[in-house]
Amino acid sequence: MTINNNNRVVFQVTTSETGIFIKDFLRSKDISERALKKLRNNGKILCNGQTVTWRKVVSTGDEIVLVYPTPVKNRYLQPESIPLKIIYEDADIVIVNKQPGICVHPTKAHPTATLANGLMDHWLKNNPQASFHAVNRIDRNTSGLVLIAKNSFSAQKLFLQKQQQMLSRSYLALVQGKVVSRTARVDLPIVKCDGQTTKRQVAANGQRAVTCFEVLDYFRDCTLLRLNPETGRTHQIRVHLSHVGHPLVGDELYGGSTKKIGRHCLHANQLSFFHPRTGQAMIFELPLPADMARASG
Fold it and tell me: CA–CA separation, 234 vs 190, rounded Å?
């Protein structure tokens, strides 16, 4: 299987796959029902260069080409030249070390100067057909690794990995006080606070949220943790740590002190997944950022 021009995916039918309908062949490649409908209505499905229907039976050696529709330009997502720390990029994905203070994508409060705006500008110069699909999102003041798919096919494959818990991520955090338990699993539901646009709290009627952590080091008045969230609720790590009495250093919203640093000390340091095209295992890791290292002293 290959991908070219961002919106074309090519498969080769093997001997073991011969004799089945093309729809079943594509479903075996993890192409979702939604993606198939999009291809049927707005794109193309070709077999050896000819447009075909779902009833086409594939044979050994057939070349199946999916031509995804050209992404519609989002008028609310304008290219902006902003500094980017790109860790890795190919035709399908880009990994960025997002800096604190930058949103992943535009919001009502922060409609411009986001990671998405910066990447749209970056792609104008070298990959104009790329489209922005954030696979993992982190808060504006959280730093670290963000994975972006650059086409519909890659986005669908990566979101499926996320759903099947094949995409894993971990964080480094500085929390206030000494965390006594060397390891712990926090399984507490989270709900949006009444009258608040972003703040969350632990509540029995909330959505299930699970965060695992281990202690990495102790400092004079704070603890360095590695965290692995099993779910992905808004502010999950921040809420859970605050609830157990150890808010993030710098997290004013959830009770942390801002004396040492002006942002919450949370860093997305590790990300692992399988490449949507090749299936190759991809692992990316970042060290503790300098501002968090200073805040630990």
Answer: 9
Q: How far is CA 171 from the centre of its chain?
A: 13
Sketch the domain layout of the chain as residue ranges. 2-67, 170-267
Instruction: Evaluate whether 149 touches 90 at the Cβ level (below 8 Å).
Output: no
Cα distances (Å, whole numbers) of residue 81 to 115, 122, 124, 142, 189: 10, 8, 10, 21, 40
Backbone angles phi, psi at 84, to 5 degrees: -125, 140
- 155 token code pair: 């986005």
Convert the pLDDT of each residue in 125-183 to its tens digit: 888 889 999 999 999 999 999 999 999 999 999 999 999 999 999 999 999 999 999 99
For the question of whether the overall pTM of this predicted structure is more than 0.85, the answer is yes
First to last CA, the chain: 51
Q: Is 194 marked active-site?
A: no
State whether CATH 3.90.1150.10 applies to domain 170-267. Answer: no
Q: Tokens 């304008």 identify what position?
A: 78
**Residue 265 pLDDT greater than 80, yes or no:** yes
Architecture of domain 2-67 in this structure:
Roll (3.10)
Kindly name the residue from 24, 62, 92, 139 that is annotated as catalytic. 139
Residue 17 — very low, low, confident or very high, per pLDDT cuts 50/70/90?
Answer: very high
